[in-house]
Amino acid sequence: MPMRRRVLAAGLAGVFGAALSGRTAQAAETAPPVRLDQLNLVNLSHVNDPATTNVFPGDPAFELETIATIPQDGYYLQFVREGEHTGTHWGAPGHFNTGEPLADDMDPADLFRPAVKIDVRAKAAHNPDYAVTIDDLKAWEKRHGRIPDESVVVLWTGWDAKWGTPAFPNTGADGVLHQPGFSIPAVQWLIDTGRLGRRGGTGTDTFSPDVGTDETYTVSKLVYRRHRISLEILANLKALPTTGAWVLAGGPINRNGAGSTATIFGVLPPGVKAN
Length: 275
Description:
Elements (H helix, E strand, L loop, with lengths): L2 H19 L3 H6 L9 E4 L19 E6 L1 H4 L3 E5 L7 E3 L20 E8 L1 H6 L4 E2 L1 H11 L7 E5 L24 E2 L1 H9 L8 E4 L13 H6 L5 E4 L12 E5 L9 E3 L2 E5 L7
Parallel strand pairs: 5-7, 6-8, 7-9, 9-10
Antiparallel strand pairs: 1-13, 2-3, 4-10, 4-12, 5-11, 11-13
């Protein structure tokens, strides 16, 4: 194995060994290297397509315009106009909190975090305004173990299947969105107990970690502090394991960016299988 590949593999072994297996740093250093070709990636992003992209109310319209073609110009190119949080995206702390880090203040490790998935589809199907509770989180932990510190806690609400239809925003007659999310006490508990930590966060297949009817964005304001992120409008959550995976958020790093439209991957170490 080339030296560069060995170094990268050893680094990944330390990351996955310490964070996923609860090993000490010393044990992680002596763990067998993770072969990079044994990592499995699952795509957690919707395709950015103006014909199917639901845009959050008040955000700019999403437009793609072909400005160069191979027959005319020798190359193909599109002009893209969209908000930074259009489609699948990640958000930086400064998106909701003045003085907190923006996209270009974040470290690569802030965008590569261990993840757990909490399936609330049944409750969300019964109540589109469902707010995940502390009891829900504790019940999940009784079954799957403690949420690792500095994790991204992903809600699978079933909204990823509604993408591209009016059922995704689920706007009521009063213009209010009806989407499930975290309750304020649940997110405060995740923060107070260290589960979100300094550089964890939340994920969801809806517009926001907030319940759609809560226009105070209190949950977002709590999540978006320190170096914590929010992954939003996730897709294909069926493929993300309940435990054991990591999430990697890509996308352009705009100067003073509130985040970025992104390709977000689930990264599965050897032995961790997609659901």
